[in-house]
Amino acid sequence: MDITIHASFLPHNDPDASLAFYRDTLGFEVRNDVGYGGMRWITVGPPNQPGTSIVLAPPAAYPGITDEERRTIAEMMAKGTYATLLLATRDLAGTFERVQRREVEIVQEPTDQPYGVRDCAIRDPAGNLIRIQQLR
After folding, report:
1. Which residues does residue 84 pair with via DSSP β-bridges, in sequence order?
2. Is the pTM for the entire model greater than 0.85?
3. Could you give the residue ranges of the DSSP H alpha helices within the chain?
4. What is the helix (H) or strand (E) element at residue 103, kind and residue range?
5. Which residue in 50, 48, 56 sits closest to 22, CA to CA?
6. DSSP E strand stretches across the chain
7. C-beta of residue 38 within 8 angstroms of C-beta of residue 58
8. What confidence tens digit (pLDDT) does each residue in 81-123 have?
9. Do β-strands 129-134 and 118-123 pair in parallel, antiparallel, or remain unpaired?
10. C-beta separation of 24 from 102 below 8 A
């Protein structure tokens, strides 16, 4: 079987702030920016991985979500407990230093984890947890 990850979705509540974070802080390229009905879907991804993308999407756009569920999602996003993205780099110290210079919420400085990786954690403007681990 030949299956690859093409795109994954993360919620955003401020498209301009999310765009700036993923483009300017993480260095991702913008692959698409689509507006519809007052909402925006922004597709970004690492320049060296053209086949893998992240779609930053408004959580209110999903069909079938009730108003109560929208409120719950908004509360979880505000707490940073709704979505997580795991990234990897060959230079965690250098990546963390560059990210730290950008007024980003630091959740965890680079740390050796008991499960065998060294990583750090930050939050994007929507509250999504972004973990960055050192490639071996």
Report:
1. 129
2. yes
3. 15-20, 67-79, 92-100
4. none
5. 56
6. 7-11, 29-36, 39-45, 53-57, 84-89, 105-112, 118-123, 129-134
7. no
8. 999 999 999 999 999 999 999 989 999 999 999 999 999 999 9
9. antiparallel
10. yes
Residue 90 main-chain phi, psi, to 5 deg: -85, -15
pLDDT in tens, 23-81: 999 999 999 999 998 899 999 999 999 999 999 999 878 788 898 998 999 899 888 89
Q: Which two tokens stand for residue 110?
A: 């680079």
46-70 burial, b at 16+ Cβ within 10 Å, e below that, comes to eeeeeeebbbbbbbeeeeeeeeeee
Query: How big is the CA angle at 58 (ends 127 and 42), to the nearest 5 degrees?
Result: 90
56 neighbors 7 (Cβ within 8 angstroms): no
Of 81, 75, 82, the closest CA to residue 57 belongs to 82
Supply 105's token pair: 């919420």
Q: Tell me the β-bridge partners of 11.
A: 57
Structure tokens at 132: 């960055």
